[in-house]
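Annotators were shown the component list below and the corresponding predicted structure, then asked to write short factual statements about the assembly.
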Amino acid sequence: MISTQSSEADALGTASFTPLSSNKSPELPELPELPESSEWFSTIGKKLLTGITGLGLVIFVVVHLLGNLTLFFSASAYNRLAHIIERLGVLTYLVEGGLLAIALVHIAVGINIHMNKQTARPVKYAQYVSAGQPSRQSLSSRTMIVSGLVLGGFLVMHLATFKFGTYYTLPDGSGRDLSRLVFETFHRPGYTAGYVVVLSLLGLHLRHGIWSALQSLGIATRPGLYAASAVLGSAIALGFIGLPISIYFGLI
Amino acid sequence: MKINLKIWRQEHARVSGAFVHYTVANVQPDLSFLEVLDLLNEQLIAEGGVPVEFDHDCREGICGACGMMVNGQAHGPLQRTAVCQLYMRHFSDGDTVTVEPWRAKAFPVIKDLVVDRSALDRISAAGGYISVKTGAAPDANAVLVAKPDADTAFDYAACIGCGACIAACPNASASLFTAAKISQLALLAQGQPERKSRVVKMTQQMTAEGFGDCSNHGECQSVCPKGISIDAIAQMRREYIRAKLPFG
Amino acid sequence: MTLNARIPEGPLPHKWGNFKDHCQLVNPSNKPKHTILVVGTGLAGASAAATLAEQGYRVKSFCIQDSPRRAHSIAAQGGINAAKNYPNDGDSVWRLFYDTIKGGDYRSREANVYRLAQISNQIIDQCVAQGVPFAREYSGLLANRSFGGAQVSRTFYAKGQTGQQLLLGAYGAMMRQVAARQIELFPRREMLDLVVINGQARGIVVRNLLTGEFERYAGDAVVLATGGYSNVYYLSTNGKNSNVTAAWRAHKRGALFANPCFTQIHPTCIPVASEFQSKLTLMSESLRNDGRVWVPKQAGNQRLAQEIPEADRDYYLETRYPTFGNLVPRDVASRNAKQVIDEGRGVGSTGLAVYLDFRDAIASQGKSAIEARYGNLFEMYQRITGEDPYAVPMRIYPAVHYTMGGLWVDYHLMSTVPGLFVLGEANFSDHGANRLGASALMQGLADGYFIIPYTLGNYLATTPLPEVDTSDEAFGEAEASARTRTMKLLSIQGDKTVLDFHRELGHLIWNGVGIHRHQQGLKKTIEDVRSLRHEFWQNLRVPGEATTLNKNLEFAGRVADFMELGEVMARDALAREESCGCHFREEFQTASGEAQRRDEPFAIAAAWKYQGDEQPPELEHETLVFENVELTQRSYR
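Structure shown to annotators:
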């Protein structure tokens, strides 16, 4: 949907003109051409990518959460859901592949933006303080790279633990008993504590992330949306954390 | 009152700089922060020292020449206030004030607190205008602009080009500066013919100058002496999408 | 000697048209062969550079700031006049012309002012097309307001930032040509000399303010648009970098300086709070629409404003001028304020202020009405003074903010040095002895967008211009003299700083050639300024080096020129034995204390010719001929 030809930008000749401090005759030196960047990797293109992939991941996370919540009803409901997903076959692989691609793009762009930030300010301030409202700078916005990387690492471990973890079969042999694995895992204090921490970081990531994705897509966000981002981010994090806590303390 | 100053001194771009401590006595609350630097400089000259260089001109917050980090904040602690209009009544006797130049790769230090902001001129040259030749204009009232659009365009046009948005941005991004001009012109009927090329060219130049990418921290809108909103940045992105969509 | 203004033939309304119809044009293919040096990037300089570049000339543009967008035009608040008559309230080109020439107290040139009024409409069209966000009505059409006591609403505005918006429009036009490589930009360069070869202006010598290097640039014409010289008073509403240096150095190379004593003093500025204050801030005079000006009746008052009962307050403007009251023109308001302050009735900690009180306006119209009208000004006042003008009266004091005088130019905007054109506030041409509100922006843009392209073209097309390059000995001589002067400033190593001298000079000029002037005072000012200048060259201390950014050194050069200018201002004020516009000579007033103009013999532009640093300048004049307006005496009683 987005044109990939870059000839238009070249023809505009924006890359070079008189350097302002030049003391040369009108025969002007050639300035370096701009990098031939496709729209997606321009500075705004990157924001669109992070925004779109970010929102995609938010949708996934919400769906995932709804799936998790079935455990509050019953283990069999949870297992049935897992079973349905498993039986989708090729479709599951397609969705999984898509999600993986989205996650990788999101991570790659995030790291690129972070690295650009380092080059754009090689000398740091000795003292730096946020000017406060209406600044949207927060612990959340400042730690996106940290929370993001932790979540990326967690994703691998999470898949190893659950998706590729022990394959318990249901007593009636009708499929995988995923809920048993979940209950076992969340009786391990270390894992549970770690999970709670990481999912809190997800909340932190989403606090800035949801709002920021909308802003990146050009939706001028009003204070209400900014607040909603905090509410939704926390709700997602609490939803995820609720399950292991309930299991660990034997509430379900 | 007495004010202690911890000021970044750097002779030129190719040598490293360092903080130097000074004390200025008899600072009256009605003095502006730049007047305290004036006082310090008079003191330094009397002692045979070299004055602290800083850019300044109108001293009423409109020319955009002045700008420095004061206690870690661009233009100091007051919002919607350029440092030339920061008065000492907002400080207390004995305070130590840290003063640093704008820091960004695209803003190399020239001397002390003076930085080279010509990157902003080059972004403007890349498309921050309407290509109308003198004499070619229709009657001023032939072009209608709805009042809300005209008012918002004015709010964006109020940018003074001081560079505080970049200085305060954790990523050293020039998005607010660039977006303010793009969005101003996009809101006006006169700006339509070049609407698409403008956003592409200006944002390309912004990247080429070595500014960072925007992470929506929104710090820029808090330090902007004119209070320009990051809604301008959202609009810039819409303009970009529109420019790149095949039927946009 | 009488100067020839080269005014075109024909009736007033047709002069500019006749000129355009018959002036010589430069062939388009020849335009790129001409290099034009434009100094200054304010409204006049930026609009000239952009327009000349659009036409195909090679333009080199110089400014002292780090970016052309920072020129002091940016600080103009109020608005820009044009005879559009959109409100249908009776305005016309004639009326704008008449108001401007009358407002200038008949000391400007009819033909120039009429042309200005004619061009005014095109300026608005041009700026709107550039995307200048002027205020609009709900219909989407442009809004107008009445300004500075005008009877019609002819002022276009962009909140209180009209100058900024117009300048950014011109800056944009200029940057478009920079991108097209038609303009080469030289920021942080200060013009230190004009190079005259075979009697023609052919180049400039500038100092690169970052490296300290002296640079030579040759061209076929030099356009100066370097603004006014209000900073000769030290404290003014001008930016700290505004200076007379480029114009003054051109003056010393043969350009006559006209009417230097015509300086406008604005009545509603925020008063000086301390000795170390570096500049004054103007507040829109629209404040006087609702504010009442007063001082205590008794001198030596120690009470706070709110403790002074009604009976002890002197609303002196309302008493003295029952018809106009608080809305008397700028010079009348300033003069009366100075007078009551001199009587010891000034208010505030320094005693150098009068009250501008909104108490009654707030009581009758409500706080919200006043806030809607003046909210941003009140906020600005509070930011600077720390006082809340809704609760206590504002304190105001007059401050210098515009200089009508400047380099003498003819109808073509060319100075007495062929090839040297002077635009905007730097020239003397259109405002006579007093400038009307919202006219400065109009003049700067008229000169740059619409006049210079024609008159400069005519000059280039009709003048033989032999090849010159920067190795010419005239360049060598000019560079050497600029270098010597600069190095001299550094080498004195005396006891007083530039700031000390500038402050002292400011006091002398303010007291001698300020709101009112008289013979004795002026004679003394000439002597005092001269001896201060001599002391300056003996006892100045400039720190640092000449090879890096050294703002003290820059300022020293500018103050040195202000010293010379200050003396000529006093001489001009002394020679002009009449009161007119902003020039109030105490010896020349009516029985009721109003300015007494003497059209015979002073309906002239007084143009001073440099004769050497220690020689008094020679006075030449241009007789102002008024064929279309009747010269009347102002009365605001």
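Statements collected:
1. Chain C touches chain B through 78 residues (CB under 8 Å).
2. The mean pLDDT of chain C is 95.
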